[in-house]
DNA sequence: CCCTGTGTCCGAAACGTTTCCAAAGCAATC
DNA sequence: GATTGCTTTGGAAACGTTTCGGACACAGGG
């Protein structure tokens, strides 16, 4: 920038003003500066820029789990889009899955002076974020120990929708397979219970299956065991897209096919031998809303109290959820 | 850091030395400094750190297409992992698909003083990267106008493998559906041609289908048209996972099912009515190798000339590719 | 002619590190 | 006791930007 100033025969301040907006600079001077910028191929150093007091870098941090999971990938993509429109870059923290790793990743990102954090939180306390003086938006689930914005899906409503749908087909024994993601899972279970209560049915607790892991493999194993019981369920509610995959995998070896409803849509769901009925929400919108909110917080545009935004879920009937009880 | 120095009663230089490695500091002094750091909750400001001359920030930039595509998501995940191990963060450029947008995104990232760039390049000239003095590794395909490292897949070999497999089943009319991603697609086509030549067959150019877009929709439409011809192909080679999806979608309405081989594996491929045969490579490894190479370049550890690394492809037989000609 | 206000421009200060040089302390050697 | 060399420490300079107070020029009003 100093070089540009010299070349154009002006002061640093003038160059800086031209580079940003350029108010209060005579057009003639400004064009001279612009010429010098082009000749020298000058590019503003964002790092130095972010160093100034009070300034934050123009990047957002995104902390989430496995990008290979389409759910997270969709959120990331949406956030990237929205942030990009505002000239913000997105820094992806490396996430090691365990809460301690998450904490370290977040600290790391704060050290990079990001303008805001978008987090799909792990369990564990997040109160260390409170004092950081940096806007935070949680996505998909709330965090403990801090009262921040949160954008999520109507898990309870979705769980209820899925279960009601199965019960409405006349299923009396509907199992739910729960991935260990405490919050969302808990809500979906609550919806499941509520649907039962609404239908005047008692929940058979042996049909509430807690998986040790959220993987397709764990779900497959659990489903196999479930279907080998003397009195297997005739309806299955898979609380996650990966769980649904595992369930379907296990059901390939089963004679009496139970009805299946999944939570969250997934690619190819409509192309399987029996197309899969799911309860889904607009995941991209989830990411977009979160990103926009975070940008507004970072810019200081939005000064409302912590928001709690919930997106609705819809049932997509494709076949697997409409099988009658056997 | 100044506060820490005051608190510990030492100079700035000493604190800095403790914070990094801490060589040449008496243990007693070092522990006093560490105590002060803990008390004040001090955290190094990465931005200021990257400002020093010659220093680059400890982040890698990653520029790639749609994260929703599992291929890209897998690369991103792998890069994230590897970079994280070295304490590097990953900045995701927002990619608008068009070459101009890509260029802008890259310039943006360079302005952020990233230590290196990992790019899945769009078409168009990338020579503007040559003068930036920043290591670049291209992934999946080379770029024009610059001689940099590149990590990719054996597209030609894969294309050949897929085609040979189909020809070996006795298929005489094998079509190839090409997504418009010039380089990879061209290589796969070359493999297709080579397989034909190897089998002593002439390629029917009407069976080489260039799709207007790389989407499942475009592939679905093209497949439908293809199969409605008077003399439809009995074997199909889908050059991409999305293309394969479209192909399979179209084939649901077709009586005489042709054999299908896809390029790149995808989730649920083994669960479709006819499990899908694909030619696949280790995409995660692709990302890992690229990230490692970039880190070594950035650290100055690796000073060899531009590398050109090619990963092999393997055929995964699942059924769809083993259908006999009809 | 002086004063004031306005529009433009200049350049020093500040941001929080790292690095480098110099200084200080200490032990060993002469 | 002086010299030398090594380890440890202190602090100034530098990085590239933004911001801010002030300077300068010029126009208009008194």
UniProtKB/TrEMBL annotation, chains A, B:
Keyword DNA-binding: yes
Record-annotated HTH lacI-type domain positions: 1-53
Superkingdom: Bacteria
SUPFAM superfamilies: lambda repressor-like DNA-binding domains, Periplasmic binding protein-like I
Keyword Plastid among record annotations: no
A Pfam family this chain is assigned to: LacI
Listed SMART domains: HTH_LACI (SM00354)
Keywords: DNA-binding, Transcription, Transcription regulation
PROSITE patterns linked to this entry: HTH_LACI_1, HTH_LACI_2
CDD domains in UniProt: HTH_LacI, PBP1_LacI_sugar_binding-like
InterPro entries documented for this protein: HTH_LacI, LacI/GalR-like_sensor, Lambda_DNA-bd_dom_sf, Peripla_BP_I
MF GO annotations: DNA binding
PANTHER family named among the record's database cross-references: HTH-TYPE TRANSCRIPTIONAL REGULATOR GALS, LACI-RELATED TRANSCRIPTIONAL REPRESSOR
Protein name per UniProt: LacI family DNA-binding transcriptional regulator
Lineage, top ranks: Bacteria, Bacillati, Actinomycetota, Actinomycetes, Propionibacteriales
């Amino acid at each position: 920038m100093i070089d540009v100033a010299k070349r154009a025969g002006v002061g640093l301040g003038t160059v800086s003003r031209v580079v940003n907006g350029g108010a209060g600079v005579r057009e003639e001077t400004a064009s001279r500066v612009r010429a010098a910028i082009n000749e020298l191929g000058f590019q503003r150093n964002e790092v130095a820029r972010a160093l100034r007091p009070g300034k934050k870098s123009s990047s957002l941090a995104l902390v989430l789990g496995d990008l290979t999971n389409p759910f997270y990938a969709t959120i990331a993509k949406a956030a990237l889009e929205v942030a990009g429109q505002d000239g913000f870059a997105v820094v992806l923290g490396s996430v090691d899955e365990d809460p301690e790793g998450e904490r370290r990743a977040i600290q790391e990102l704060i050290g990079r002076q990001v303008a805001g954090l978008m987090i799909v939180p792990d369990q564990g306390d997040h109160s260390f974020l409170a004092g950081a003086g940096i806007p935070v938006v949680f996505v998909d689930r709330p965090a403990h120990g801090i009262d921040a914005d949160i954008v999520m899906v109507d898990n309870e409503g979705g769980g209820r929708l899925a279960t009601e749908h199965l019960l409405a087909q006349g299923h009396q024994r509907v199992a739910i397979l729960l991935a260990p993601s405490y919050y969302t899972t808990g809500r979906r279970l609550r919806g499941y219970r509520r649907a039962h209560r609404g239908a005047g049915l008692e929940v058979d607790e042996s049909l509430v299956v807690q998986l040790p892991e959220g993987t397709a493999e764990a779900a497959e194993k659990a489903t196999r065991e479930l279907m080998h019981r003397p009195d297997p369920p005739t309806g299955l509610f898979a609380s996650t897209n990966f769980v649904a995959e595992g369930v379907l995998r296990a059901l390939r070896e089963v004679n009496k096919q139970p009805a299946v409803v999944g939570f969250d849509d997934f690619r190819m769901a409509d192309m399987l031998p029996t197309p899969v009925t799911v309860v889904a929400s607009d995941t991209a919108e989830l990411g977009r809303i979160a990103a926009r909110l975070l940008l507004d917080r970072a810019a200081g545009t939005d000064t409302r109290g912590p928001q709690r935004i919930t997106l609705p879920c819809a049932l997509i009937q494709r076949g697997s959820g409409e099988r009658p009880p056997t």
